[in-house]
Amino acid sequence: MRKTIKTGIFGGTFDPPHNGHLTLAQSALNSLGLDEVVWMVTPLPPHKGDEQITAFHHRLAMVYLCVLEYPQFKVSDLESHREGPHYTLDTIRLFRQASPERELTLLIGGDSLTNFHLWHQPKSLLREIKQLGVFSRRDQEFELGEFLKNFPSMKDKVNFIKSEPIDISSTAIRHTVMSGLPIKELVPNKVADYILRNGLYRSTRFRSL
User: Fold this and answer.
1) Environment class of residue 47 by beta-carbon count within 10 Å: exposed (0-12), middle (13-18) or buried (19+)?
2) What is the mean pLDDT of the chain?
């Protein structure tokens, strides 16, 4: 009998991945007793619309570099192997088919919990996973009222992951690079070097190359 692997699915565009992402992933690992966290790089998230996003191969390469020194962090390019739109439900089902020995926890932000009922087939998604791991700051409290109104039987699936406030964002990093300022305190050194070497974020033109 195969051992069950407790796996957290940490999805995002990661444009670029940064130290805040590492902190969140480590908090999920420790707080929920996970065996691993899989960073699921999204080619084209449905909610991003027409927003310009850096080419997938660059973002995937940066995530590999970001987690290089963390053996419990894995990287998946699963979503790149199918056409969009890339809904979380479809991704989770494909991942379960490929790795039936894994018990899946979907990691989301607190803002995503409040509008979870607007996701693509949210009830089906909840049935596919063991739990929802919700990131929240230590000084932040979430009410489950709205969530339970839409999913009354799913209270036990929600677990909060408390962490210190993280004052880093991918958007701010892109603007910092565009301004010609250093980012080595915001991202791992290998990611900073990759951004510099490939001319990413220097202007809007470079972001889609």
Assistant:
1) exposed
2) 89
Burial level of 25, CB count in 10 A (0-12/13-18/19+)? buried
DSSP 61-102: HHHHHHTTT-TTEEEE-GGGGS-S---HHHHHHHHHHH-TTE
Q: Residue 159 is encoded by which pair of tokens?
A: 């677990």
**pLDDT (tens digit per residue) in 62-113:** 999 999 999 999 999 988 877 767 789 999 999 999 999 999 999 999 888 8
Q: What share of the chain is helix, strand, coil (3-state, %, to 5)?
A: 40, 20, 40
- Has residue 188 been placed in a domain? no
Distance CA 61, CA 191 (A): 9
Alpha-carbon separation of residue 66 from 7, 52, 115, 116, 128 (angstroms):
19, 22, 29, 28, 28
* Domain extent for 131: 5-168
Query: Cα separation of 160 and 19, whole Å?
Result: 20
Q: Is residue 182 part of a domain?
A: no
Pairing of strands 5-12, 36-41: parallel
Q: Is residue 92 part of a domain?
A: yes
| pLDDT single digits (tens) 6-33 | 999 999 999 999 999 999 999 999 999 9
Q: What angle, 0 to 180 degrees and rounded to 10, lies between the N-to-C axes of helices 56-66 and 189-197?
A: 150
Number of domains in the chain: 1
Residue 197 located in a structural domain: no
